[in-house]
Amino acid sequence: MTQLWPAPVAAGPVRATVPVPGSKSITNRALVLAALADGPSTLRGPLRSRDTELMAAALRSLGTAVRDGAEGAWLVEPGELRAPASVDCGLAGTVMRFLPPLAALADGTVSFDGDPHARKRPLDTVLDALRELGADITGDSLPFELRGTGSLPGGQVTIDASASSQFVSGLLLSAPRFEQGVTVVHDGPPVPSLPHIDMTVAMLREAGVDVDDQRPNIWQVSPGPIRALDLDVEPDLSNATPFLAAAAATAGEVTVPGWPSATTQAGDAFRDILTAMGAEVALHAGGLTATGPERLLPVDVDLHEVGELAPTVAALAALADGPSRLHGIAHLRGHETDRLAALEREITGLGGDVEQTADGLLIRPRPLRGGTWHTYADHRMATAGAILGLRVPGVEVEDVATTRKTIPDFPGMWSAMLEPVA
Ligand SMILES: O=C(O)C1=C[C@@H](OP(=O)(O)O)[C@@H](O)[C@H](O)C1
Ligand SMILES: C=C(OP(=O)(O)O)C(=O)O
């Protein structure tokens, strides 16, 4: 029997300050770079949740020491890459796309597997690219085996990264340790989530690696050492969006402390989306404060660069004052679940009117009723259900624990947010 979480209804405008844990994208990039670096690294404020714990466990099995430091920090000491090893990717795109290039540097066999749905997420592009760069791999998706020889020639490879930016990021992150580095050329429809590739490039450069990204769709990483990291991880701005959305949905006011004034996180774009929906958004020394409007405005928004935000935006759109159009997100069909189908089915199931288009969703708000909100093992489906539940009595979210993928205690944070301010 699937566990159902009764999503709490907001008694009035939500007013809260919500500290949000560290960024998944920064943490998992930092772990990979630290494992390949020239000395021990310190990551302060990393995300400690399923996706990042899986990354840490995989790196440990490959010979890297990842230990606990003070206040939840991670101390990473690189070791010689060891095999045989096995990697559980869970449902983490970052683990399944970032680790095969690193594992290709181990001397021996590394086996990869993951959750049932992870076996369906696109991966062949990365594995084909690695084969072209000199790796010996059996299979095109999870599960597969990689037989490393302790080094990889590297060089130039042309891929179609239109299904996921992570194909590019994964190849770039380990490339300083390939004999010739790498030149990744994208050939195909536009790459989604480009800010995530920019984050990869910025973190490589921060670690002293030479990266040339001057030409569109071409990224070149020179071989060379990766400098050890000493890093304060920013809060996860994408994970902050359901909490800010609570303010938008209830004419409330929510502050997320520590919102960076400059960042490589794609989730920063949520500020503009909230503004377009009629909220007031203020970035100040204490963080980011969103104040919700009396009536939410509909939006016509291209989410190609920030597909991660689509479930939050869709939930808000279902509560808005008119029809919204979300587009540029065909690639969400290959995320944790087919997110376009899942959002269409679940919002429609509560009485809404949602239609899939070739690359997005048309959402026409209707009065909604309670019901079971299925989540398909997708953390962001669960948080989208919680947002709707603030305004719609009787929404029951299936398997809310799936939020542990990127938030260690979402139900606890959500309840704390809804407690009346003393
Ligand atoms: O590199 C990253 O950290 C991520 C890149 C994006 O992937 P896609 O390009 O597959 O959308 C994003 O949606 C994902 O949540 C995290
Ligand atoms: C697409 C996402 O995750 P992943 O890193 O597993 O691709 C996400 O977090 O929205």
TrEMBL record:
Name the residues that bind 3-phosphoshikimate.
K24, S25, R29, S164, S165, Q166, S193, E308, H335
Documented EC number(s): 2.5.1.19
Q: In which pathway does it act?
A: Metabolic intermediate biosynthesis; chorismate biosynthesis; chorismate from D-erythrose 4-phosphate and phosphoenolpyruvate: step 6/7
* Enzyme type, top EC level: transferase
User: What region holds the Enolpyruvate transferase domain?
Assistant: 12-412
Keyword Cytoplasm applies = yes
> Which reaction equations make up its catalytic activity?
3-phosphoshikimate + phosphoenolpyruvate = 5-O-(1-carboxyvinyl)-3-phosphoshikimate + phosphate
Q: Where does phosphoenolpyruvate bind?
A: K24, G93, R121, Q166, R339, R380, K405
Q: Which UniProt keywords apply?
A: Amino-acid biosynthesis, Aromatic amino acid biosynthesis, Cytoplasm, Transferase
Q: Which Gene3D superfamilies match?
A: Enolpyruvate transferase domain
Q: Which SUPFAM superfamilies does the record associate with it?
A: EPT/RTPC-like
Q: Tell me if Hydrolase is a UniProt keyword of this record.
A: no
- Subcellular location, in the record's words? Cytoplasm
Q: What is its main location?
A: cytoplasm
Subunit (UniProt):
Monomer.
| NCBIfam families on file | aroA (TIGR01356)
Q: What does this protein do?
A: Catalyzes the transfer of the enolpyruvyl moiety of phosphoenolpyruvate (PEP) to the 5-hydroxyl of shikimate-3-phosphate (S3P) to produce enolpyruvyl shikimate-3-phosphate and inorganic phosphate.
Family of the protein in this entry: Belongs to the EPSP synthase family.
Q: What is the name attached to this protein's record?
A: 3-phosphoshikimate 1-carboxyvinyltransferase
Name of the gene encoding the protein in the UniProt record: aroA
